[in-house]
Amino acid sequence: MSFAQYMDIALYDESIGFYATSGRAGRRGDFLTSPEVGPLFGALIARRLDEEWFALGSPDTFVVVEFGAGPGTLARSIAFAKPECAPALRYLMVERSAEQRAAHADHLENWLGDLDAAGVDSFVRGVGPGPEFASSPIAPYGVTGVVLANELLDNLAFDIVRHDGEGNFERLNVHLAEDGLEFVVAPTEVPASLAVVLSSAAAGEWMPLQEHAVQWVMAAIDRLERGVVIAIDYGASNAEIAARPEMGWLRTFVGQDRGGHPLDAPGSCDITSDVAVDQLATAVRPTVATTQRQFLERLGIAQLVEEGRQIWSEKATAPDVEALRARSRIGEAESLLESGGLGDFLVLEWTI
Ligand SMILES: C[S@@+](CC[C@H](N)C(=O)[O-])C[C@H]1O[C@@H](n2cnc3c(N)ncnc32)[C@H](O)[C@@H]1O
Description:
By secondary structure, the chain is of the alpha/beta class. It has a domain at 25-157 and 209-296 and 337-351: Rossmann fold, CATH 3.40.50.12710. The protein has 13 helices and 17 strands. One of its GO terms (molecular function) is protein-arginine omega-N symmetric methyltransferase activity. Keywords: Methyltransferase, Mitochondrion, Transferase.
């Protein structure tokens, strides 16, 4: 099978897939994402949602579709931040893993349940006092609002390909040998729309072919009548990714550590790649592309940290939960803005 087929099973198969069984984002999980650093990230995303709600003319129903919501931590932080759009907010967590969706009810007031297609449809068309939250494996079309994905695209199945400088491509297939799984090189075709970008890599270097991520961008844009698609992830240009020594772009994670070879013990670890931004741009070029640092600075992270310092200094002698949360913003901001870490992540926005 192709590596993409293998990866889809290893991550998402209902009985053995990493995300269907043990895999989790979070401090007690397998890797730390921005929402899992603490509530500050969600407070800033809440500001971005408010910006969009106002830009759309404060509609009575404002839909946020969060893809790859994991255990629902970002939604909880957004609810906690009480954005101005809250009365209009219908927030749908689209998560492929039933195991992770089952966690969404925890600590989320106004959670309306795990919905089927008909339920999703009426949820996103509902009016009345928000915020309301719901979960589903299914996403709606024809919505006004925001489609959001934090660290989803790096987790969508990709193939591993290279070219010979003369327009011929090969890919790595996964083969069951006597002593386990192994890679086998096979000739392949690549989509014409991606051939130019893939050819920008040096001949002979393996790189990810991220067709599913490209298709996700196209579908995400199609889902919106008006609004914005926001995807946040680690990424670089295709040529930069391919140039990483020893396929350094292909990584596995488990228990907050790097995992082993991606073909060892399928289902036991996360499999991920840097996202090739110029492959995504073959779908539609992003309206805005910034680093996470620039994005969070524009949304006022410094002001929220300063506010946290003030609250802490007023209550330091007898700190309550609010004071501790306020103090924690300082460390959270350092993590979210870190060079060589989360601060260098890319925020891609497509305004519709
Ligand atoms: C790396 S986790 C990120 C979780 C969360 N967004 C965060 O930043 O902490 C990726 C999540 O995307 C989910 N996922 C993968 N493919 C998906 C798809 N096509 N639709 C919805 N969720 C998907 C996985 O099950 C997993 O929970």
